[in-house]
Amino acid sequence: MIRFVVSPDNRVVPDLAGKLPGRGMWLSASRDVLDSARTRQAFARAAKAQVIVPDGLADLVEAALVQRMLDAVSLARRAGQTVCGFQKCREWLTSGRVGVVIRSESASPDEFSRLVSGRRSLPVVTVPDRVLESAFSRDRAVYAVMAPGALAQRLIAEHERFSGVAGRPLPDPAGVSKEQAEL
After folding, report:
1. What 3-state class would DSSP assign to 13?
2. Could you give the number of structural domains in the chain?
3. Do 61 and 27 touch, CB atoms closer than 8 A?
4. Same-domain check for residues 101 and 162
5. Is 181 part of a structural domain of the chain?
6. What Gene3D superfamilies does this protein map onto (predicted)?
7. CA–CA separation, 161 vs 34, rounded Å?
8. Are residues 128 and 157 part of one domain?
9. In the chain, helix, strand, coil percent, each to 5?
10. Cys-Cys crosslink for 34: which of 58, 62, 96, 98, Cβ 3.0 to 4.6 Å?
11. Cα(151)–Cα(159) distance, rounded to whole angstroms?
12. Which residues constitute the domain of residue 152?
């Protein structure tokens, strides 16, 4: 779910942290729901006033959710709760210190299968390439793992909302899509 509030200048504003003042309007984290709420004047009815809904509201929410995922990974990196790179990730996986596996959208499914090799019960988060690259200040970053805890749970929750708004399906935990499994 995503909370929206009306700003003092009558604009609809996404409140992803859920902390802005005002009466909240909650919508499902789905691009279709956001687009239909905009076209059907649902925000004006819920606010009981004329409101200004920005063009490209779903794109605005999607970009903000990417930023929240980046913030979670960056905070975990500064706290020493996440590592990046195939070998370091593999070491954390074998020692059992992993709460969530993070992979970029450009990650190879075969290489990802080798990385997790049998640990199919771990949550997997697929993020846009720039999230890992920015969080670890690298030109290319494909895999990361995060220790269990509040930051891992926050990243998983933000990823679920992002997947709905971006219109992307949640990845199969095994790292293999249904189409690839049928081949």
Report:
1. strand
2. 2
3. no
4. yes
5. no
6. 3.30.1330.30, YlxR-like (3.30.1230.10)
7. 12
8. yes
9. 45, 15, 40
10. 58
11. 12
12. 59-176
pLDDT band at 169 (very low <50, low <70, confident <90, very high): low
Tokens of 172: 């199969």
Give the side-chain half-sphere CA count within 13 A for 45. 7
Q: Which of 69, 2, 10 is nearest to 33 (CA)?
A: 2
Are residues 130 and 68 part of one domain?
Answer: yes
Q: What is the C-alpha to C-alpha distance for residues 16 and 29, in angstroms, rounded to an integer? A: 11
143 and 165 assigned to the same domain: yes
Dist CA 134 CA 98 (whole Å): 21
CA distance 3 to 125: 22
Cα dist. 91→19, 94, 95, 98, 167 in Å?
38, 5, 6, 10, 33
Please report, as a single letter, which amino acid is at residue 45: R
Residues 82 and 26 in one domain: no
Same domain, 73 and 137: yes
Q: What is the CATH number of the domain that holds 117?
A: 3.30.1330.30
